[in-house]
Structures are given as structure tokens and as C-alpha cells.
Amino acid sequence: MLLRAEALTRRFGAMLALDALDLEIAEGEFFALLGGSGSGKSTLLRIIAGFEAPDSGRLLLDGHDIAATPPWARPVNMMFQSYALFPHMSVADNVAYGLRRAGVARGDIAARTASALAMVGLDGFERRRPHQLSGGQKQRVALARSLVMRPRLLLLDEPLGALDAGLRERTGFELRALQRETGAAFVMVTHDQEEALALADRVALLDGGRIAQVGAPRAIYERPASRFVARFLGAANVLEGQAAEGRFDSAEAAATFAGAIPAGTVAVALRPERIRITADGAGPNTAQGVVEDVAFRGDDSLVLVRLSGGATLRVAHAEEDGAPPERGASVCLAWDADAVVALAS
Questions:
Q1: Average pLDDT over the chain, rounded to whole?
Q2: Number of structural domains the chain divides into
Q3: To the nearest whole percent, how much of the chain has pLDDT over 90?
Q4: Other beta carbons within 10 Å of 252
Q5: Domain residues for 93?
Q6: pTM of the full structure
Q7: Domain presence at residue 103
Q8: Which residues form the ABC transporter domain (predicted)?
């Protein structure tokens, strides 16, 4: 294991930013720290970088506690959200800055700088200044400046946040390819769930300074552990009720969910894309309701259906299935048993 956090705690006055947090990051892993504002993800990143010190707990790199090690002495580099390029320096000088500070020989600096710029597709940009670059090009310079130091661990603070949608997707794939090519572990902080799910090998979802769930993207999306995870990732429908003998009865949905539902379950999650609008709504894993609103989203439409028990379900209606029902229409809904996820909390 490359990095291990053990009971990391950090307070800012009365605010508890990290609450005895435990985490492991493997060698060569692309890891995403996901969460809303105030969840603790940026504080954790700054502690790993050495810009913040924990109040208690340990931060182990290769088994050695580095909590008191200064940033410059760690095999860790950080790419800031603002990119933090020196405006008076050329692209090449920005990339080479860390190498010069580290006392690397001049010939090696030139070779490594050229290699890093080639890696991010900026050959021929060596003499330009930051003000002559686009946002995407600045992001690549900042990435090259980090990678040229050959860190074992690269920290990325909202690396795609300043880019437009099309460039963000393309740059995300490039980041993933660079991570594989260099073999370094990447730890990315983001509030964008699509970004985290698309790029990371594993995702840790933070809430209130604690890890709500950690795992492979598909695993935590399809099998959320709690109401919070289900609602944060993909905005799943969460329904309250009571389980007995493999069935879950929900008064607010006026529906019965049948499947492998453990006894004692008091809430289940149901993804919008797993619900079908059908002609027949009889039996378990079905419900009836009235369409409250419809929003076109490109590949599908989001349909809000008020059930007879009072709950509102979000339903993703694919364009290939025809036009969505109109507001006020009565509809029948159905879903497969394996679409129902029992929630532990």
C-alpha cells in the first residue's frame, strides 16, 4: 500500500473538517475524493500534500509517518485548480522550475522538460507565456510541471473544473492515459460525480469529514451503502418502509418491492434509469402515479411521477422508447427485483 491515513482528524475552530478518517491508496492507482462543499476532501488533499498538518492521526507513506514532513521533502506533487503558473516565465521555464529548485543538472532539465511537454502534447509551445495560452493549454502546462518531477503520488485539485464540457471530457481521457503511462498514483479531488466515476479506479465519497463509502465506481453506484450515497450518486430514489420475508412494503410509494431484501431493512434505493413506464402496473415491483413534470435531457427525459402513496419517483425515460408522457397523465411503473438496493443507513 502506497499511502495510508489512520484516524486523521483536523479542526478549524469549532468546525470538524476531518473526523478520525481512515483511507488507503494503492501504488499506481487513480483515486477520486468526491463530495460536496465542506465534506473534507480538500482538507485531506492538503494534508497529503503537506500544506496542512492533522491535529491527530497518522499519514503513512510506504509505512513511514510523513505527517510532520515538509511538502518539499515528500515524493508528492500537487496541481492546483488555478494552475498557479508564473506569468513572467515561458512555458518551458514554468515546467522546469521545480527541477532547477531541486538542483538537477542543466542538460537533464532540458531533456526532462522536453519529454514532459511532449507527453502533454505541447511540443513547440516552449517559448510562449501563460497569457498566450488557452485554458486547456494552461492546464497541460501545470500537469507537465507536476509530472516532470516524477512524483510517486500526484494530487489534482479539481483539475477539470475550469474547462468547458467538451474539453473537460477529452482532457479527462488524456489524464487517465497519462496516469497509466507514468505509473504514478493520482489522487483527484472533485465535486463532479460523473468525472469521478469515469476516471477513477476507486472513489471515496466523503460526508462531514468521514468516508461514507469507498470502492470501484460501478460498485458504489449500483450498490450504495446509505441514503446519503444513493442520493448523492445519480440522485437515486430513496423510499422508506419495512421489510419482511423478502418483501419490502412502502406506504409512501403504495408499492411492494420483492427481491433479496434483508429483514430489518427500513429504506431502499431505486435508480431512475431502472424504472420503466409500462401499460400494466399490477403485482410487486410496480406502482401507479401521475406525471408531475417532464424535463428533456438529450438522450432521455426526466419524468417526475407522484405515486398514490405521496412519494415522487424520478424516472429516466429513454428517447428510443418514444415520447414521454405529458404532465397530468396517469402512468404505470415497473422495475426488476435486482434494481432494488437495501440501504444500511
A1: 90
A2: 2
A3: 59
A4: 14
A5: 3-222
A6: 0.87
A7: yes
A8: 3-233
